Amino acid sequence: MNNLKLVSKSLPEHNSLVQLSETVTFGGQEITIIGGPCTVESLEQMETVASKLQAAPVQAIRGGVYKPRTSPYSFQGLGEAGLEIFATIKQRYNLPVVTEVMAIAQIESIAASADMLQVGSRNMQNFDLLKALGETDKPILLKRGLAATIEEFVNAAEYILSHGNSQVVLCERGIRSFDNYTRNVLDLGAVAALKQITHLPVIVDPSHAAGKRELIAPLAKAAIACGADGLIIECHPEPEKSVSDARQALSLEAMIRLVHSLQPIAAAVGRTVALPTRELAVA
Ligand code: PEP
Ligand code: MN
Fold first, then answer.
1. CA 64, CA 69: separation in Å to the nearest integer?
2. What is the 16 CA–ligand 1 centroid distance (Å)?
3. For the chain, which ranges sit under pLDDT 70?
4. Ligand 2 centroid vs 220 CA: distance in angstroms?
5. Which residues pair with 117 in a beta bridge?
6. Through-space distance between the first and last CA atoms of the chain, rounded to whole angstroms
7. Whose CA is nearest to atom 3 of ligand 1?
8. pLDDT at residue 3 in the model
9. Domains in the chain, start-ordered, CATH in brackets?
């Protein structure tokens, strides 16, 4: 790996922490889980997601308000109205918010209502966006480009760090291949490699990798087993009615079951998963 100055690991035990809120960190002993719908659809939807997932528990909530859609005729996201929904959710629930930023012009308003700015796969090499995010003080979730090499991926992170922001979490979300049975191919080799090459936390998105809800739990377990620091998973109160990525959306109940099923895998690799709150444990 040429020309990496800031993202490289100096020693095997060199692992950076990225702080999402006072209590939520990526890269520590505890696995960090982000859950929520592909797209923010309504306040009611996000209230249901937040209240259920808070008890699961997940550590952060996700949802796109600016959506990178393949077709210009597909729903493009609620935009500013979606950010207002997040502002309300943040006030009512103790959950940090993760949402995608597609353009430099969106940074300021998104940063006012979200705790972590996601760079989507399609923007991984939007170098001007990376530079601008490097000038913010917000944690960045950098997703791997759908056909990006590991070298291109870590160089994209280097752009953000070299512009002043060291709070970067890498996300493997699957890469394009010849087989369309799964939406993408989850590259777990990249997860292991990234943990060796860089000191940055690495999380896995099994939802966009699999594209099919029935494959998400096994891939999530495999990700934790091979050293991922966390997961980002799509789920929805009524998965079939999701305005985008319905086929890969888990129900909230399946999401909660998945979080609990990670416990023994995490323990086997010396990690922990937060325990459910008491009400849920009793229910
Ligand atoms: C998303 O997280 O909703 C998304 C669009 O992901 P990706 O950029 O990995 O396709
Ligand atoms: Mn999606």
1. 11
2. 24
3. 278-283
4. 16
5. 99, 140
6. 51
7. 38
8. 86
9. 18-277 (3.20.20.70)
